[in-house]
Write a structure and sequence with these properties.
heterodimer, A: mainly alpha, 19 helices, B: alpha/beta, two-stranded antiparallel ribbon, 9 helices, elongated
Chain lengths: 475, 361
């Protein structure tokens, strides 16, 4: 079920009412949330619910197995087997097709027979997200950072519909305590929740859709037929599109959870104000970044074993992070670019610190220069992220160098205002937005109804008929 | 281990215990934002939604009218109809008209995009906006020989289609443009077909495209959404015997318009589908198109994709081996659409067909 649809609005009206009516009755509330979440997930295909249930059972059993074992060796084996099974499920659905086609072409090239059967496995939406949450649960129990949950609590944790399709990737330590407690029905932070939902809808339905149709899709479809400025604006435009798409989804998810009495972790923090790649990854898809840090980078050794191993660990983490997004060489290159950028920053910081200088140079001009180059590097990565293949990506990049002196009719004043306006909005202090929310919450009810109704009208009027699925749904 | 207590949460307890306990957390937090009980939040949201619904009902009613026939459409019309009537009676629908869809932000449709050289040797760009519905004009600038195009006198190709046509067009358009001697235009519209002109009027759209692009070759790939009832009155159900007759008329009309400017018309058939029901429906659609292609004057070239995107027996397969001997995933996991790799395979098939017709591209 897509958030920006009438279907979901009706679904949420029911879910919201059921949530608060059953709030005093723990068992019924949990059962109802699991049921509603499975309806939400099964809306696009009921067979996927079986996969969600399987992942839930495997992770729950894995967590219990790890917990009952006393000696460290068998605990590690239990954790490894459980995580392995979860990764095998993910691998089958997400990577089998990619691996089998590439393996087949490799064996064909060397004159060998077919290594594995060619099968097209349908990719269930959200599998990457709930698998990562399931893995973090098992590993947190292994690390003794989390007690095993009750079965129903765990089922709510994994399937809770506000985060189910595209995150944020909420950890057991964050969500399970909230599930175990009754929420206060008399203190809903509705002004912030409505702001997040409407801002998310505006970003997704209006900005992301417009930029996609106005520049990104035309240029990426036929890069050689567009000028260098159009290719540059397409890359910048995609940076705006994917930010508005994904952060828009996250804002809606956090706002919906807030209306149900839950707090989700922040997932974006003005990522295009970042001064280097490390800073960018602290601000972009923050819940994935910290997952990769805590469950991949640190177990690999992190930065504890010298510079060479640190750089190796960064590269492994970012390339696998790229592959998490999708089974394609474009995502591998995108991940590698993120790794190279971070390695460069790491080496630079180390060199500066050896010279007794601060790790990152300061001063207003330097800060803006750092932001400018970081953004351009991020956009270079986005070209691969959005391209259907490496040849298309290189074609777009090639136009940046070869397409000068041609007309650029796609770069309209409205597009320029939209792209730069969205980027500039990242520099708006959060305090001003807080004040706006507070001012809204103090208005009379009739004024609030009018503001909300007309905001919704503006979004639906300025947006296209029918909204494309969120980009991150396919991950 | 201790778990952090989320703010504004209370321990789970019975309703009686909850009511008996003083609730310090109900006091307004120091951030200046007022909190409300859930019943008031629900009332506020429902009122705002109702206001939006009242203002937007005419648009919602229109969207329901052009949606696929079925229970969902019936319920949508039943719900939006009375509210839209009230909205119109109160003149509220003008609010939407004022904010308008002419603001330039409402995307969603692919429209006509043109790439490749145009007469004079410069890259072509999208033509100026147009309003459809007029008859095609007679070509005013005909290259000496369309089968020997040059950068100065490129071959003009128009590709039209539904979402599967877009899958083909996304590969075919740049491939043709990259020859340097073809100006390729693509007009793709998702969820469209020939059975529901109330939703999207392809004959009018094609007429406008012909006027704008004046093509010498028209490539059509439409049909994936066509196995549905014709809306009347009287309605003609897909399963009725009259459906084939009516659909054949629509296809014949579309072929006639496509070829009316003297263009060579190439109609690419629907590929085999994974879903058996949809596959049978597409076989029906392809059969009608094939029959009308033969009857058209001059004949329309029908290109079957049963083998290029299917098994040697014409069945569904997600993988085929391309000309270079590489295995290519040609179908998306929905078992209906074509991947970029599949688009390349059909694109090469179309280009080979054009070359066999004597077009030196």
């Amino acid at each position: 079920m897509l958030f920006p649809t009438i279907d979901f609005a009706l679904f949420f009206a029911i879910a919201f009412t059921v949530n608060w009516l059953l709030n005093p009755y723990a068992g019924w509330w949990k059962l109802s949330m699991v049921g509603l979440s499975y309806v939400f997930y099964g809306w696009v295909g009921w067979s996927y619910c079986l996969l969600l249930l399987t992942t839930t059972v495997v992770a729950f059993a894995g967590g219990a197995w790890v917990h009952v074992r006393r000696d460290e060796r068998t605990r590690r084996i239990a954790m490894g087997v459980s995580v392995g099974v979860l990764l095998a499920i993910l691998g089958w659905f997400k990577y089998y097709g990619f691996v089998s086609v590439n393996l087949d072409n490799l064996t064909h090239a060397v004159g060998a027979g077919r290594a594995v059967p060619l099968l097209q496995v349908a990719l269930p939406i959200a599998i990457s997200f709930f698998t990562f949450m399931a893995i973090s649960y098992v590993v947190d129990i292994y690390r003794r950072e989390l007690e095993p949950a009750k079965p129903l609590d765990f089922a709510v944790y994994i399937s809770f519909f506000p985060h189910l399709l595209a995150g944020p990737i909420v950890r057991g330590t964050e969500l399970l305590p909230q599930i175990r407690r009754r929420r206060d029905p008399n203190s809903i932070d509705y002004s912030r929740a409505f702001w997040l939902i409407l801002a998310g809808l505006f970003k997704k339905v209006v900005i992301s859709s417009y930029v996609s149709g106005a520049i990104v899709t035309p240029v990426f479809t036929s890069p050689t037929q567009h000028s260098a400025p159009e290719a540059i604006f397409a890359a910048w435009g995609y940076a705006v599109q994917i930010y508005c798409d994904f952060s828009g989804y996250t804002d809606i998810a956090i706002g919906l959870a807030m209306l149900l009495g839950f707090r989700f972790p922040q997932n974006f923090d003005a990522p295009y104000t970042a001064r280097n790649l490390q800073d960018f990854w602290r601000r972009w898809h923050m819940t994935l970044s910290r997952w990769l840090r805590d469950y991949l980078y640190i177990p690999l050794g992190g930065s504890a074993n010298g510079q060479a191993q640190t750089l190796r660990n960064i590269m492994i983490t970012m390339v696998l992070g790229g592959l998490w997004h999708g089974a394609a060489w474009t995502f591998v290159i995108w991940g590698a670019l993120q790794g190279i950028g971070q390695c460069f920053g790491h080496v630079r910081r180390t060199v500066r610190e050896r010279r007794g200088l601060p790790g990152v140079a300061d001063g207003p001009v330097r800060v803006w220069v750092q932001r400018f180059f970081t953004f351009q590097f991020v956009c270079l990565g986005w070209v691969f992220f959005n391209a259907t293949g490496t040849s298309q990506a290189f074609s777009v990049i090639g136009r940046v160098f070869s397409g000068w002196g041609e007309a650029s009719p796609l770069i309209t004043p409205l597009l320029v205002i939209t792209v730069f306006g969205t980027l500039a909005s990242q520099f708006v202090p959060p305090l001003r937005i807080d004040r706006l929310q507070a001012a809204f919450s103090r208005q009379r009810t009739a004024v609030q109804v009018g503001l909300l109704g007309f905001a919704l009208l503006g979004i639906t009027t300025f947006g296209p008929v029918g909204v494309a699925p969120f980009i991150y749904y396919r991950f | 281990m201790s778990e952090p207590t989320p703010p504004h949460h209370v321990e789970w307890e019975s309703p009686e215990e909850f009511a008996a306990r003083p609730h310090a957390e109900l006091a307004a937090p120091p951030d200046g934002r007022v909190r409300l009980p859930w019943t008031r939040v629900l009332a506020l949201a429902v009122a705002a939604f109702a206001l939006w619904f009242l203002l937007y009902a005419p648009t919602l009613q229109h969207n329901a009218q052009v949606s696929p026939v079925g229970t969902r459409r019936t319920i949508s019309l039943d719900v939006t109809g009375p509210v839209a009537a009230i909205s119109r009676a109160l003149q509220l629908s003008h609010v939407v008209s004022i904010t308008g869809r002419s603001n330039g932000l409402s995307g969603g449709s692919t429209g006509l995009t043109v790439v490749g050289p145009h007469a004079g040797g410069q890259p072509a760009k999208a033509p100026p906006p147009r309003t459809g519905g007029t008859a095609p004009t007679t070509p005013t600038t005909v290259p000496p020989d369309p089968k020997n195009p040059t950068a100065a006198n490129p071959l003009r190709v128009l590709i039209v289609g539904d979402s599967i046509g877009i899958d083909l067009g996304d590969a075919l358009q740049p491939n043709l443009a990259n020859t340097g001697v073809v100006s390729a235009a693509l007009d793709g519209r998702v969820s469209t077909g020939l059975t529901r002109p109330d939703y999207f009027n392809w004959p009018a759209e094609l007429t406008a495209d012909l006027k704008a692009q004046n093509p010498q070759v028209v490539v059509v790939m439409i049909g994936a959404n066509d196995a549905q009832d014709f809306l009347g009155p009287p309605d003609v159900p897909y399963t009725s015997p009259q459906w084939n007759t009516l659909y054949a008329q629509r296809v014949a009309q579309f072929m006639q318009i496509a070829g009316s400017g003297g263009a060579t018309v190439v109609w690419v058939g629907m590929p085999p589908m994974q879903n058996a029901g949809l596959n049978a429906q597409m076989s029906d659609v392809n059969a009608v198109v094939q029959q009308q292609a033969v009857k058209a004057k001059p004949p329309v070239i029908y290109l079957s994709t049963d083998h290029t995107l299917g098994t040697p027996q014409g069945g569904y397969t997600p993988f085929v081996t391309n000309g270079a001997g590489q295995v290519v995933n040609v179908r998306t996991p929905d078992g209906t659409h074509i991947t970029p790799g599949g688009g390349q395979v059909v694109s090469q098939q179309v280009i080979a067909e054009l070359q066999s017709l004597g077009y030196k591209i």
